[in-house]
Here is the input.
Amino acid sequence: MPGIITVPAATVKPVPTSDNRYGGGRPPKFDEPSRPITVTLPESTLQGLQKIDPDRGRAIVRLTQEALRDQEQEQPLVEVLEMAPNTGLIVVGPSLTLQRIPFLHLVEVSPTRFLIALDTGNDYRALELAVRDILEEVPAAETRERALLNQLLDVTKKLRQSERVSMAEILLVKLDGKRKR
Here is the structure.
Protein backbone atom coordinates (compact mmCIF):
# COMPACT_ATOMS: atom_id res chain seq x y z
CA MET A 1 0.00 0.00 0.00
CA PRO A 2 1.35 3.46 -0.77
CA GLY A 3 2.42 5.49 2.22
CA ILE A 4 2.74 2.54 4.61
CA ILE A 5 6.15 1.34 5.71
CA THR A 6 6.47 -2.06 7.31
CA VAL A 7 9.30 -2.50 9.79
CA PRO A 8 10.10 -5.91 11.28
CA ALA A 9 9.26 -5.89 15.00
CA ALA A 10 12.79 -6.97 15.95
CA THR A 11 14.24 -3.70 14.61
CA VAL A 12 11.89 -1.42 16.57
CA LYS A 13 13.35 -0.22 19.85
CA PRO A 14 11.35 1.64 22.49
CA VAL A 15 12.15 5.29 22.86
CA PRO A 16 13.73 5.80 26.27
CA THR A 17 11.73 8.03 28.60
CA SER A 18 12.06 9.03 32.21
CA ASP A 19 8.96 6.96 33.00
CA ASN A 20 8.88 3.98 30.68
CA ARG A 21 5.88 2.17 32.28
CA TYR A 22 4.09 1.93 28.96
CA GLY A 23 7.08 1.18 26.74
CA GLY A 24 7.21 4.49 24.92
CA GLY A 25 4.78 5.99 22.50
CA ARG A 26 1.47 7.33 23.55
CA PRO A 27 0.54 6.89 27.23
CA PRO A 28 -2.36 4.55 27.93
CA LYS A 29 -5.77 6.17 27.93
CA PHE A 30 -7.30 3.86 30.55
CA ASP A 31 -6.09 2.27 33.78
CA GLU A 32 -7.00 -1.24 32.68
CA PRO A 33 -6.22 -3.42 29.66
CA SER A 34 -7.83 -2.09 26.50
CA ARG A 35 -7.76 -2.67 22.75
CA PRO A 36 -8.76 -0.78 19.65
CA ILE A 37 -12.05 -1.58 17.93
CA THR A 38 -13.81 -0.29 14.85
CA VAL A 39 -17.47 0.57 15.13
CA THR A 40 -19.90 2.35 12.83
CA LEU A 41 -22.24 4.78 14.58
CA PRO A 42 -24.92 7.16 13.33
CA GLU A 43 -23.87 10.81 13.00
CA SER A 44 -26.33 11.84 15.71
CA THR A 45 -24.67 9.40 18.13
CA LEU A 46 -21.21 10.71 17.22
CA GLN A 47 -22.41 14.27 17.89
CA GLY A 48 -23.87 13.15 21.21
CA LEU A 49 -20.60 11.47 22.20
CA GLN A 50 -18.77 14.70 21.36
CA LYS A 51 -20.93 16.53 23.92
CA ILE A 52 -20.01 14.00 26.61
CA ASP A 53 -16.26 13.97 25.91
CA PRO A 54 -14.24 15.12 22.91
CA ASP A 55 -12.49 11.72 23.03
CA ARG A 56 -15.01 9.18 21.69
CA GLY A 57 -13.44 6.29 23.58
CA ARG A 58 -13.71 8.09 26.89
CA ALA A 59 -17.30 9.13 26.09
CA ILE A 60 -18.27 5.52 25.40
CA VAL A 61 -16.57 4.33 28.60
CA ARG A 62 -18.31 7.04 30.62
CA LEU A 63 -21.74 6.13 29.21
CA THR A 64 -21.15 2.43 29.78
CA GLN A 65 -20.09 2.98 33.37
CA GLU A 66 -23.14 5.17 33.98
CA ALA A 67 -25.51 2.64 32.41
CA LEU A 68 -24.07 -0.20 34.47
CA ARG A 69 -23.53 1.84 37.64
CA ASP A 70 -26.55 0.41 39.43
CA GLN A 71 -25.49 -3.10 38.56
CA GLU A 72 -22.56 -3.00 40.95
CA GLN A 73 -25.19 -4.03 43.46
CA GLU A 74 -26.05 -7.40 41.95
CA GLN A 75 -29.45 -7.13 40.30
CA PRO A 76 -31.81 -10.05 40.76
CA LEU A 77 -32.01 -12.37 37.79
CA VAL A 78 -35.82 -12.30 38.04
CA GLU A 79 -37.99 -9.78 39.87
CA VAL A 80 -41.51 -8.42 39.95
CA LEU A 81 -41.37 -4.63 39.61
CA GLU A 82 -44.29 -2.38 40.48
CA MET A 83 -45.31 -0.43 37.38
CA ALA A 84 -48.63 0.95 38.66
CA PRO A 85 -50.36 0.83 42.05
CA ASN A 86 -50.83 -2.84 43.00
CA THR A 87 -49.65 -3.98 39.56
CA GLY A 88 -46.27 -5.46 38.74
CA LEU A 89 -44.43 -6.91 35.78
CA ILE A 90 -41.93 -9.75 35.68
CA VAL A 91 -38.53 -8.42 34.65
CA VAL A 92 -35.52 -10.65 33.95
CA GLY A 93 -31.85 -10.23 33.20
CA PRO A 94 -30.38 -11.18 29.82
CA SER A 95 -30.94 -14.80 28.82
CA LEU A 96 -29.94 -16.57 25.63
CA THR A 97 -31.98 -19.58 26.73
CA LEU A 98 -35.24 -17.65 27.09
CA GLN A 99 -34.71 -16.26 23.59
CA ARG A 100 -35.05 -19.83 22.30
CA ILE A 101 -38.71 -20.01 23.39
CA PRO A 102 -40.52 -19.22 20.13
CA PHE A 103 -43.52 -17.38 21.61
CA LEU A 104 -41.54 -15.31 24.12
CA HIS A 105 -40.09 -11.85 23.51
CA LEU A 106 -37.61 -10.13 25.79
CA VAL A 107 -38.36 -6.41 25.62
CA GLU A 108 -35.42 -4.36 26.90
CA VAL A 109 -36.72 -1.73 29.30
CA SER A 110 -33.31 -0.63 30.61
CA PRO A 111 -29.77 -1.90 30.08
CA THR A 112 -29.76 -5.64 30.91
CA ARG A 113 -33.38 -5.60 32.16
CA PHE A 114 -36.09 -7.24 30.06
CA LEU A 115 -39.86 -7.39 30.23
CA ILE A 116 -41.36 -10.74 29.21
CA ALA A 117 -43.93 -10.51 26.42
CA LEU A 118 -45.79 -13.55 25.09
CA ASP A 119 -47.40 -14.03 21.70
CA THR A 120 -51.20 -14.05 21.67
CA GLY A 121 -52.58 -17.45 22.59
CA ASN A 122 -49.84 -18.16 25.14
CA ASP A 123 -50.14 -17.46 28.83
CA TYR A 124 -48.10 -17.81 32.02
CA ARG A 125 -48.97 -21.54 32.14
CA ALA A 126 -47.44 -22.04 28.68
CA LEU A 127 -44.44 -19.99 29.80
CA GLU A 128 -43.97 -22.12 32.91
CA LEU A 129 -44.12 -25.32 30.86
CA ALA A 130 -41.73 -23.99 28.19
CA VAL A 131 -39.23 -22.88 30.85
CA ARG A 132 -39.39 -26.32 32.50
CA ASP A 133 -38.79 -27.99 29.14
CA ILE A 134 -35.91 -25.76 28.13
CA LEU A 135 -34.27 -26.00 31.57
CA GLU A 136 -33.72 -29.71 30.91
CA GLU A 137 -31.53 -28.78 27.92
CA VAL A 138 -29.29 -26.29 29.75
CA PRO A 139 -25.96 -27.83 30.81
CA ALA A 140 -25.21 -27.84 34.56
CA ALA A 141 -22.10 -25.73 33.87
CA GLU A 142 -24.29 -22.79 32.81
CA THR A 143 -25.06 -21.88 36.42
CA ARG A 144 -26.27 -18.31 35.81
CA GLU A 145 -28.66 -19.35 33.05
CA ARG A 146 -30.00 -22.24 35.15
CA ALA A 147 -30.41 -19.96 38.16
CA LEU A 148 -32.41 -17.44 36.08
CA LEU A 149 -34.68 -20.17 34.71
CA ASN A 150 -35.23 -21.69 38.16
CA GLN A 151 -36.03 -18.28 39.65
CA LEU A 152 -38.47 -17.59 36.82
CA LEU A 153 -40.12 -20.95 37.46
CA ASP A 154 -40.44 -20.14 41.17
CA VAL A 155 -41.99 -16.73 40.46
CA THR A 156 -44.47 -18.01 37.86
CA LYS A 157 -45.44 -20.98 40.05
CA LYS A 158 -46.08 -18.77 43.10
CA LEU A 159 -48.09 -16.30 41.03
CA ARG A 160 -50.12 -19.07 39.41
CA GLN A 161 -50.85 -20.71 42.77
CA SER A 162 -51.82 -17.41 44.38
CA GLU A 163 -54.08 -16.51 41.45
CA ARG A 164 -52.55 -13.04 41.42
CA VAL A 165 -51.51 -13.11 37.78
CA SER A 166 -53.49 -12.00 34.76
CA MET A 167 -52.68 -11.48 31.12
CA ALA A 168 -52.58 -8.16 29.27
CA GLU A 169 -51.35 -7.35 25.80
CA ILE A 170 -48.72 -4.94 24.58
CA LEU A 171 -48.21 -3.85 21.00
CA LEU A 172 -45.20 -5.28 19.21
CA VAL A 173 -44.62 -3.78 15.78
CA LYS A 174 -42.63 -5.67 13.14
CA LEU A 175 -40.23 -3.32 11.42
CA ASP A 176 -39.47 -3.79 7.73
CA GLY A 177 -35.72 -3.49 8.19
CA LYS A 178 -35.79 0.30 8.50
CA ARG A 179 -36.32 1.96 11.85
CA LYS A 180 -39.28 4.32 11.82
CA ARG A 181 -39.87 7.05 14.36
User: Anything to note?
Assistant: Strands lie at 78-84, 87-92, 104-110, 113-118.
